[in-house]
Amino acid sequence: MAARITASLLAALWLFAHTCGVWAVVEVNMEEKVEVFREQTAQITCMYTSDEGIGGTSVEWFIVTRSGDMEKIYFQDSFQTKIEPDTPYTSRISVNRTGAGVVVLTINKVQLEDEREFICQIQSFTEGISKGSTNLRVFERPKLPTIEGRTEGVAADQNELTEIGTCEVKNGYPKPNITWYRGENPLQSIPNEVEVSSSTTTESTGLFSVQSKLSLNVKKEDKDAEFYCEVTYPLPGSSAMTETDHINITVFYPSTELYVWVESPEGKIKEGDTVRLRCSGNGNSPSSVLTFKHNDVDIPGDTNVNVLENVSRQDSGVYQCTSIDMNTFLELSNTTTVNVNFLDAAVMTPSESVIMAVGQELEATCNALSSLQTQTIWLKDGEEVAKGHIVTLKATSIDTAGTYMCVVTVPEVDGMETNNTLRVFVKSSPVLSEDDVTEVETKEEMVLLSCYARGFPVPVITWGTHADKDEDFTGGGLVSSFICLLT
Ligand SMILES: *[C@@H]1O[C@H](CO)[C@@H](O)[C@H](O)[C@H]1NC(C)=O
Ligand SMILES: *[C@@H]1O[C@H](CO)[C@@H](O)[C@H](O)[C@H]1NC(C)=O
Ligand SMILES: *[C@@H]1O[C@H](CO)[C@@H](O)[C@H](O)[C@H]1NC(C)=O
Ligand SMILES: *[C@@H]1O[C@H](CO)[C@@H](O)[C@H](O)[C@H]1NC(C)=O
Ligand SMILES: *[C@@H]1O[C@H](CO)[C@@H](O)[C@H](O)[C@H]1NC(C)=O
Ligand SMILES: *[C@@H]1O[C@H](CO)[C@@H](O)[C@H](O)[C@H]1NC(C)=O
């Protein structure tokens, strides 16, 4: 009831003042807030309407203290201008009355403590008193945020929270916000899965530093995830955002499959080779131990590579690799079969040597025992003369005689080769070689005579001494003939 009376009284007064030109009221208009960076200059504008001129109004500026009291910092009327002594603003403010109805309070070197309410009060001698207020908001852009990821690996699926990393942003005002991301997705605390814990420090300067730790119940998929922090912070009239670098973590997970294979040599294995067997799982858990077995017999050592030197056919068989994860005691094993190929010494029939008569034919065979298909070629004096495990030798003449070599190879495998030889003699009466029956070499007072003969059995050479001696003087020379006899 009383309120309604007051309201209607005021309305009546207002109507009266406006129609009669007296009883007007002062009206003050101010922005709700003014935003400014620390150390910069803030300007708070106080607008008012009054029918009085500058001379008929006084201006007062107040601050609202922490305890909520009003403290005057400035006063001005037509007689005096006074900056109040001993206030935090005594040396930092100025007031500019630009024309009618506008008063600007300028604050230099704005500090965090200046974040408060400023009141402008206008008093008119005829129109009464009115005031308005503006909140001053102060900002400081924080330093670039940092991220520190965990360096040690984490075993997956431990069902416990493990610290992944820490983000920090320093010296911002107001308090910056940190949000963790895994890939595209912002992370929020979920019991037993994700824990984001932040702590804020107020520096001696009054600026805020924020630290945020991320802990996760690490899963295998996290090995491929990238983590980072996004920092958001307000600025005058807007807000801004920065990101940290992206980090990842090493996740250890046990194998679900195990593979064992011959790493080298490539292709078929032969006796004498060095064989490297490798065993590897599709996990990366450092706590898994590998062991090898050959035909169910343990091979000493616990590395993932097993080197067999100078293998023989006895090394053929099944190799088994077993992996035991020392955390989970999960056991996996797999096998590979190694086949060491061999080629024994070549066996020739007839062996070593054979005597043939001219016109005789002979079947010779040559082969070697092998785990693989073999091929035989025959050489005589280094020239290939036949192919195949069986050849027919025909003693057409004494020229058939000689040393025959059979070379047995395994075409599939380089370097698998063996050979054997057969000496063939062809029976024939001795004959002198056509080319050099006699070769003469003169040495001072001595003459060396040579006589070459072929035949089987080996011919015996005798020299006919002075037999059928024939002397002949031609040009003072002396000719003496000797006879080379074959038997
Ligand atoms: C007061 O405001 C006027 C108009 O904006 C300007 O020209 C003048 O420099 C100001 N004076 C001070 C002391 O800031
Ligand atoms: C993890 O980070 C390292 C170094 O920053 C990088 O070399 C590697 O490729 C990253 N791995 C993944 C899966 O992103
Ligand atoms: C910071 O986070 C709080 C709570 O989530 C939110 O109310 C505030 O608006 C955020 N500030 C910025 C600048 O994003
Ligand atoms: C054993 O090895 C084979 C061939 O690499 C693979 O296909 C199989 O999945 C493996 N078995 C296990 C139990 O790891
Ligand atoms: C390889 O083993 C065989 C017997 O299996 C042996 O006679 C030979 O000397 C060995 N070679 C080397 C290089 O150790
Ligand atoms: C025959 O075998 C011997 C001994 O293995 C070898 O030294 C020789 O080179 C081989 N000869 C040929 C022509 O293959």
TrEMBL record:
It is found in: Membrane. One of its GO terms (cellular component) is membrane. Its main location: membrane. Keywords: Disulfide bond, Membrane, Signal, Transmembrane, Transmembrane helix. Residues 142-248, 254-337, 344-423 form the Ig-like domain. It holds the Pfam family Ig_2. SMART domains: IG, IGc2. This is Ig-like domain-containing protein.
